[in-house]
């Protein structure tokens, strides 16, 4: 019998580690070059952690209300979760365009 709980815990830990590394890298970029691209990248990476934790807590509380509440929470999460990544991608695009001009 597989221990799926351990797989999910390891996967969640790796996901959190990756997000923290991206926030650290964006923070270093922001300190070295403060422009709209680096601000958007940093904001998007921090917002992805905040939203991830927020929806984890919201899902936990909504599970106590019942399946309809969990479904509503997941629907909201499917709309809001990509927004930080879109911010990050726009910032990366702006940053890359500025670097190519140099």
Question: What tags apply to this protein structure?
Answer:
102 residues, mainly alpha, Helix Hairpins, 4 helices, 89% helix, elongated
Task: Explain what the structure shows.
With 102 residues, the protein is mostly helical. The protein has a single domain (4-101), classed as Orthogonal Bundle (Helix Hairpins). It has four helices and no strands. It has helices at residues 4-32, 36-63, 67-80, 82-101. It is elongated.
SSE diagram, text form:
Elements: H1 4-32, H2 36-63, H3 67-80, H4 82-101
Number of domains: 1
Low-confidence spans: none
Largest sheet: none
CATH topology title? Helix Hairpins
Classification by helices and strands: mainly alpha
Mean pLDDT: 91
Helix content: over 70%
State the name of the first-level CATH class.
Answer: Mainly Alpha
Architecture in CATH? Orthogonal Bundle
Beta percentage is: under 5%
Q: How would you spell out the order of helices and strands?
A: HHHH
Alpha-carbon distance between the termini? 57 Å
Count of separate DSSP helical elements? 4
Q: What is the radius of gyration?
A: 17 Å
By DSSP, the count of extended strands is 0
Shape designation: elongated
What is the structure about, briefly put?
By secondary structure, the protein is mainly alpha-helical. 89% of the residues lie in helices and 0% in strands. Helix 1 runs antiparallel to helix 2 (36-63), helix 2 runs antiparallel to helix 3 and helix 2 (36-63) packs antiparallel against helix 4 (82-101).
């Amino acid at each position: 019998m597989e221990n799926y709980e351990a797989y999910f815990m390891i996967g969640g830990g790796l996901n959190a580690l990756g997000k923290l590394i991206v926030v650290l890298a964006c923070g270093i970029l922001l300190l070295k070059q403060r422009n709209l691209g680096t601000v958007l990248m940093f904001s998007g990476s921090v917002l992805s952690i905040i939203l991830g934790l927020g929806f984890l807590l919201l899902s936990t509380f909504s599970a106590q209300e019942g399946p309809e509440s969990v479904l509503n929470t997941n629907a909201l999460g499917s709309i809001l979760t990509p927004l930080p990544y879109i911010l990050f991608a726009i910032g990366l695009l702006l940053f890359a365009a500025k670097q190519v001009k140099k």
